[in-house]
Design brief:
homodimer; alpha+beta; Arc Repressor Mutant, subunit A; three-stranded antiparallel sheet; three-stranded mixed sheet; 5 helices; 6 strands; globular; DNA-binding
Amino acid sequence: MELKELIKRHNLRPTSNRLEVLKFYRKAGKAVSHGELDAELGEQFDRITLYRTLKAFEDAGILHKVYDEKGIVRYSMCSHDCDNTQHQDNHIHFHCTSCEATFCIENVEIPQVQIPQNLIVESRYMVINGTCNNCKRA
Amino acid sequence: MELKELIKRHNLRPTSNRLEVLKFYRKAGKAVSHGELDAELGEQFDRITLYRTLKAFEDAGILHKVYDEKGIVRYSMCSHDCDNTQHQDNHIHFHCTSCEATFCIENVEIPQVQIPQNLIVESRYMVINGTCNNCKRA
DNA sequence: TTGCAAATGCAACAGTATTGCAAATAATTC
DNA sequence: GAATTATTTGCAATACTGTTGCATTTGCAA
């Protein structure tokens, strides 16, 4: 079970809570909100613990935050190994307006843009809304 | 006072509440959250009324929603006349990580991107985080 | 196996947002 | 201009999301 290793590598203790959460995220293959996580693991673990687990994973660089157009916060597994100093989630996110799923499009970089005023750019965030392949068929 | 006309044109009644809210948004020149609006006009108008006013303006196409990286919902005046069926806010938003201001960069379109899977694209949303000119000086 | 730091569960609380309903206000018709 | 109708507003209640403090438990290392 390499999830245990992943957690340890980021200087966190591999508790049963964290292992289950991470297992769920890996299985999900899409961004998952605290609410969705709680619906799945709420019987087993405390609501607040799940909040703290998500925060710990984000700080450690195991999960990264994703926002959809409605401002809903979700988390998704980092594909590259991020750390506590910097996330490398410089890819586009896709949000399906039909099933509300949000997932990362790992191999597409967010394009550079030319900004008129001389503002200092630190990071870029981009979401594409549309219909995913599942919902397209239906 | 052409704000009255603007409201009427979108089939809403130009009440004092709505006129004040719109006046505030025009003056602000940046995206404003409900909380910020309430801090300014909360003495005069009810908190819930302000929520409903924002919603009404959004539905009517007078304001459009803006999200920053923390998932905070703000509203900004639509430069082009939108309507209740579609918003045309296809421009980039800039968020200053120092003063937390968010504003529209009207004249820069969100770039097209090539998406690998055959997903159906409906709209694109982009936020650039950085430092605004005000905070740069400081 | 003992001692310490990290992690968890529970309770309380804070902030944001929505809904129902009655009262007030604006627009419409006569 | 008065009466009628529909919209808008304020208040109360409620729901959802997220955070903090503290006592207890758990994991890890000496």
